[in-house]
Amino acid sequence: MLLAVAIAAHADDTRENRGNDPFLHVSSAIAACPAPLGPFETEREWLDEAHYRIERGNSCWIAGRCRLSNSYDYDKEIAQSVTRRLASLNASLQWREKTSLWLTLQRRFIYLDGCVSRDFDTARFVSALGETADVEKVIDRTTRRP
């Protein structure tokens, strides 16, 4: 009985990408940069957020701002587009040589996590990422101090 309770408690603590949100590790030039949690969450966190996730996903459709019925349905397409965009941006911004970055895509938002060098133009990079098709917003959560 105690073993079953312990296994159930451990299963609830397991972090998984329960929403299958795209999570991309795109650069690793800064060695001491810790990996973010990204879209990985426990079952309890997932259940706590389920109602709000549904509501946020459908709100752009209800408001007439989305062609798809759920804003999360854009994320896989955006992941492909942003990968191509990042390849073209490296020539002008040299972002790969100056960053350790992860991107989480959720409901047309790009969450930018990781570390950037002191001389990296983060504002320009964020602006360029925001020009990717169907991206509504880029949220910069990077640091210059790993």
Kindly provide the radius of gyration, computed on alpha-carbon positions and rounded to a whole number of angstroms: 17 Å
Instruction: State the helical fraction.
Output: 40-55%
**Can you list the strand order of the major beta sheet?**
1-2-3-4
Number of domains: 1
The count of DSSP E runs of length 2 or more, i.e. the number of strands, is 4
SSE pattern, N- to C-terminal: HEHHEEHE
The shape, in one word, is: globular
* Unreliably modeled segments: 2-6
SS-based structural class? alpha+beta
The fold-level CATH name is Histidine-containing Protein, Chain: A
Protein name: BON domain protein
What does this structure look like?
This protein is an alpha+beta fold and 146 residues long. It has a single domain (22-143), classed as Histidine-containing Protein, Chain: A. It has 4 helices and 4 strands, in the order αβααββαβ. The protein has helices at 2-13, 43-62, 75-93, 122-130, and strands at 23-28, 99-106, 109-116, 137-143. The protein has a 4-stranded mixed sheet with strand order 1-2-3-4, covered by helices on one side. α3 (75-93) crosses α4 (122-130). 21% of the residues are buried. The model is unreliable at 2-6 (pLDDT under 50).
Condensed summary:
With 146 residues, this protein is an alpha+beta fold.
